[in-house]
Design goal:
This protein is of the alpha/beta class and about 450 residues long. Among the domains are: about 140 residues, no CATH class; about 140 residues, D-Maltodextrin-Binding Protein, domain 2, CATH 3.40.190.10. The protein contains 14 helices and twelve strands. A five-stranded mixed sheet has the order 2-1-3-12-4, with helices on both faces. It has a five-stranded mixed sheet with strand order 7-6-8-5-9.
C-alpha cells in the first residue's frame, strides 16, 4: 500500500530528477511556480474589462435619458451592457457618483453645479455638449430677466441643474426668494401645459429634465415666446461656466422661419463624469460612442466640436487625455473589443511576471550552490582546528585518540551529505582531506 509519505517521497524524487538539483531547489521552484500561477490567475481576473456599466442619466424622456439610450446601443455592439439609472437630473447624478454605496459608474453632470463639493474620486471624460437654458413665457416681448419681477416662474425640479442655474441668473437680476416674484419648483401638471393654461407666466427648461418634444411643441405654440438673452456675452463674463449660444434665424424650422430672428441663449456644458477606477478600455469605448452621438452639427454646436477635453470642476482623466491625443490604443483599433481585452490582460500579466520570475529562477541555482558549498566548507574549519590541536606540544597519545574519534564523527556526518553530481568534486575533495588529516594523526 502506498502511503502519503511514500507518495510524497516519490514525487519529490521525480521533481529532483526533473530539475537536476537538491530538495531545497526543488521545493523553491515549486513554490515559485505556484506563486506565479496564483498571481497570474489573480491578475488575469483583475485586468478584465467589465462587460457591464451603469449610467446615471435623467428623468424618463429627458435629453440625458435619450442620450444614454444611444450610448447603450453603441456599446452593445462591442459586447458591453449599459444599464440606465433614471435620476432627477444633473445634481442627482453627481450625488450618486459621489456615494460609493450607489452602484453607478458614469453620469451626466452640468458645469457650475458642484461648487465646494469634493470631486477627489471622480474624473471627467470631457465635455459632450452644451445645455442651453430656454425660458418660454407669455405676454409682451421681454429683453431683460429683471422684467420677470412679480411674475409666476417655474424653475424646474428642486435641486436640478435648471433650478440651480435659474436661481443664479435671477439673483444676478435682483430677483430673490421671498420677494414678490413667485418661484415654483413643483406643478400638478406638465410645465408646458401649465404655461399654455396660464397657470404660470414663464418656465425655465433644460434638456436634463425636459423632453425634446415638449420644447419643440412650445416653439410652435401661439402666444408663447422664447426669451432672447441679448446680454448673453455679459452673462458669460459674470458666470464663467456659461457659454453664449446662438440660434440662427430659421434654424429650428426653415419652413415656418422659427426663430424669426437670430436668438442668443446661455448654458453650461455637459460633462461625462466617471469614477476614477473606470477601466481604460471602457473609457475608450465611451468616448468613441460620444464622438458618434455628439460629433454631428446642431443648432448649438459645430461638427466635431464635441466631445472635447475642456476642464472645469473635474480633472480630465489620464485615459481620456490619451484618447484625445492619439485615439484608441493599437490593440483596440485593430481587434474586436473582447479579443483586444484578452490580449491586454495577457500582456498585463506576462510582462511583469517575466521580469520577476526569470531573474528569480536564475538566482535559485546560485543560492543553492552557495548553501551547499557553505555546508561543505564549514567542515574545513573543524579539520583545521582538529589538526592544530593534534600537533600542539602538550597533546599526548590519549588526546590524539580523542581527536581520532572526533575525526570519525566528522567523516560519518560528512558522508550523510547529499550533493548533486555538479558539486561532487567538492564532496570528494573534502573526504580526501579528511583522510589526509587521519594519516597525519596516525604518523
Amino acid at each position: 500500500m502506498i502511503t502519503p509519505k511514500i507518495y510524497l517521497e516519490r514525487t519529490l524524487a521525480k521533481l529532483m530528477a526533473l530539475f537536476g538539483q537538491g530538495i531545497v531547489v526543488t521545493v523553491t521552484v515549486i513554490l515559485l511556480i505556484g506563486l506565479a500561477l496564483s498571481t497570474m490567475v489573480f491578475m488575469f481576473m483583475e485586468a478584465a474589462a467589465p462587460t457591464t456599466l451603469t449610467i446615471a442619466s435623467g428623468p424618463v424622456g429627458s435629453i440625458f435619458q435619450t442620450t444614454a439610450e444611444k450610448y447603450k446601443a453603441i456599446l452593445a455592439k462591442n459586447g458591453v451592457t449599459l444599464k440606465i439609472l433614471s435620476s432627477e437630473g444633473s445634481m442627482d447624478n453627481f450625488n450618486k457618483l459621489s456615494n460609493p454605496k450607489v452602484d453607478v459608474d458614469i453620469g451626466f453632470v452640468l458645469g457650475g453645479q458642484i461648487e465646494g463639493a469634493s470631486t477627489d474620486n471622480l474624473v471627467s471624460l470631457g465635455s459632450i455638449s452644451y445645455q442651453p437654458l430656454m425660458i418660454f413665457y407669455r405676454g409682451t416681448s421681454k429683453n431683460l430677466l429683471s422684467e420677470f419681477t412679480g411674475q409666476r416662474l417655474y424653475l424646474g425640479p428642486k435641486g436640478s441643474g435648471t433650478d440651480t442655474l435659474a436661481r443664479t441668473l435671477l439673483q444676478a437680476n435682483g430677483i430673490k426668494p421671498g420677494g414678490n416674484t413667485t418661484l415654483v419648483n413643483t406643478l400638478t401638471i406638465d410645465p408646458e401645459q401649465a404655461l399654455l393654461e396660464n397657470r404660470v407666466d414663464a418656465i425655465f427648461l433644460m434638456g436634463e429634465t425636459t423632453s425634446i418634444d415638449s420644447m419643440r411643441h412650445l416653439m410652435h405654440a401661439q402666444d408663447i415666446r422664447l426669451f432672447n438673452f441679448i446680454q448673453a456675452e455679459g452673462y458669460t463674463r459674470r458666470i464663467n461656466y456659461l457659454n453664449k449660444l446662438e440660434v440662427p434665424k430659421g434654424s429650428l424650422d426653415l419652413g415656418r422661419n422659427i426663430p424669426a430672428e437670430n436668438l442668443y441663449l446661455v448654458g453650461p456644458a455637459v460633462e461625462l463624469i466617471a469614477r476614477d477606477d473606470l477601466h481604460p478600455a471602457l473609457s475608450d469605448l465611451l468616448l468613441e460612442a460620444a464622438r458618434e452621438v455628439h460629433g454631428t452639427a446642431s443648432p448649438f454646436k459645430k461638427r466635431g466640436e464635441f466631445p472635447a477635453p475642456l476642464e472645469h470642476e473635474f480633472r480630465i482623466s489620464e485615459d481620456a487625455t490619451r484618447f484625445y491625443e492619439s485615439g484608441k490604443s493599437f490593440l483596440y483599433r485593430t481587434f474586436p473589443f473582447w479579443v483586444a481585452s484578452l490580449i491586454t490582460r495577457a500582456l498585463t500579466i506576462i510582462v511583469p511576471l517575466a521580469l520577476f520570475v526569470i531573474p528569480s529562477l536564475q538566482l535559485v541555482p546560485i543560492i543553492y550552490r552557495w548553501r551547499l558549498e557553505s555546508r561543505i566548507y564549514r567542515w574545513y574549519r573543524a579539520l583545521l582546528d582538529l589538526e592544530r590541536d593534534a600537533f600542539k606540544p602538550a597533546a599526548d597519545q590519549e588526546r590524539r585518540e580523542e581527536l581520532r574519534r572526533h575525526l570519525d564523527h566528522i567523516e560519518h556526518t560528512v558522508n550523510k551529505i547529499i550533493v548533486p553530481a555538479s558539486c561532487g568534486h567538492l564532496f570528494y575533495e573534502l573526504r580526501l582531506h579528511i583522510d589526509f588529516v587521519r594519516g597525519r594523526l596516525s604518523s
